[in-house]
Amino acid sequence: MKTSNVLVLILVLLSINASTEWPTHTVCKEDNLEIYYKSCDPQQDFAFSIDRCSDVTTHTFNIRAAMVLRHSIKELYIKVDLIINGKTVFSYSDTLCEPGHSKLIFCGKKKGEHLYYEGPVTLGIKEIPQGDYTVSARLTNEDRVTVACADFTVKNYLDY
Questions:
Q1: What residue ranges in the chain does DSSP mark as E strands?
Q2: Cα 59 to chain center, whole Å?
Q3: How far apart are CA 150 and CA 99, in angstroms?
Q4: Which residues form the MD-2-related lipid-recognition domain (predicted)?
Q5: Tens digits of per-residue pLDDT, 77-136?
Q6: Which of 48, 49, 101, 147 is the most exposed place for a label (fewest CB within 10 A)?
Q7: Which CATH number fits domain 22-156: 2.60.120.260, 2.60.40.770, 2.40.37.20, 2.120.10.30?
Q8: For 90-107, how does the pLDDT look when each residue is reduced to its tens digit (9 = 90+)?
């Protein structure tokens, strides 16, 4: 009996390791707005949530995000692309952390530390465009190593 339990455990562990992609997580799904995300970092997933989809259409809304850092953050850069039908139609990049000038409270965190943020985010948009599209976001450090990476799928079937 013990041999069969060990065999089942080995098969379960092999099936978990056989997967090369992280699962798609639901951020929110309300009325005609749905937002999902999937980590595009092959080595790490992370947690991300908002209270309600309808909050995203306001100027500022609250998020929660958590992960364990695989790399230290002295400098942190963000690159965001809006992708429609496989084509990048808009790109945005910014420096979030640099020596002597940090925009975020987790700048300076070390490898292995838990990163948790709960608070407001301002997107700088007044409405979410109608349609299906992808928002690809990548955070890299001073060594150009990926700190976090996600592809967000947005489905909006309602004009706000």
A1: 25-30, 33-39, 47-50, 60-68, 76-84, 87-98, 101-102, 114-122, 131-141, 146-156
A2: 20
A3: 26
A4: 37-154
A5: 999 999 988 899 999 999 999 887 777 778 889 999 998 889 888 877 777 778 899 999
A6: 101
A7: 2.60.40.770
A8: 999 999 998 877 777 788
